Amino acid sequence: DVQLVESGGGSVQTGGSLTLSCATSSYIYKNYCMGWFRQVPGKAREGVATIDSDGTTSYVDSVRGRFAISQDNAKNTRYLRMDNLKPEDSAMYYCAANFAPGSGGGYCSWFFKSDNGIDYWGEGTLVTITS
Fold first, then answer.
1. Nearest CA among 35, 31, 36 for reference residue 51
2. What is the rounded distance in angstroms from the CA atom of residue 36 to the CA atom of residue 7?
3. Are 37 and 48 spatial neighbours (Cβ–Cβ below 8 Å)?
4. Positions of E strands within the chain
5. 14 vs 21: CA distance, rounded Å
6. Which of 44, 52, 115, 122 could lock 6 by a disulfide, CB 3.0 to 4.6 Å apart?
7. How many helices (H) and strands (E) does the chain have?
8. Maximum separation of any 2 CA atoms in the chain, in Å
9. Which of left, alpha, beta for 117 (phi over 0: left; psi -120 to 50: alpha)?
10. Beta partners for 49?
């Protein structure tokens, strides 16, 4: 079963914007840390943004101020809005989830420092930024 359904991605010019979405079940939505990793060929996956069960969001320095997670509770879907995109943001982006009921205060950011131990992965969506 596919637990995380991703959509979005594509190709935009430098400075443009894209929004990724990640839809899931109600159970995962309420009880799991969720967020996004990205990966370029030859490198490990990098966690870039997370959201806790209480709605606290965390971002790595390279995307803070440009990326933002939002959510639609009625659709059990979270979104990663990416603004002012740069060529170095080009990567395969993966939605991810890790069991952490009651998470808050940025707790989920610790899970996303490594791709080891993540419970569920989306299928990935390619983001390409052209200069």
1. 35
2. 12
3. yes
4. 5-7, 10-13, 18-23, 32-39, 46-51, 57-59, 67-72, 77-82, 91-99, 120-121, 125-130
5. 21
6. 122
7. 2, 11
8. 42
9. left
10. 36, 59
Q: Which two tokens stand for residue 109?
A: 């950011």
| DSSP structure class, residue 52 | -
| Residue matched to tokens 């659709």 | 75
Per residue in 64-93, pLDDT tens?
Answer: 999 999 999 999 999 999 999 999 999 999
Tokens standing for 108? 């989920």
Model confidence at 1: pLDDT above 90: no
Task: Name the residue among 68, 101, 103, 106 with its Cα closest to residue 84.
Answer: 68
Q: Are strands 10-13 and 125-130 parallel, antiparallel or unpaired?
A: parallel
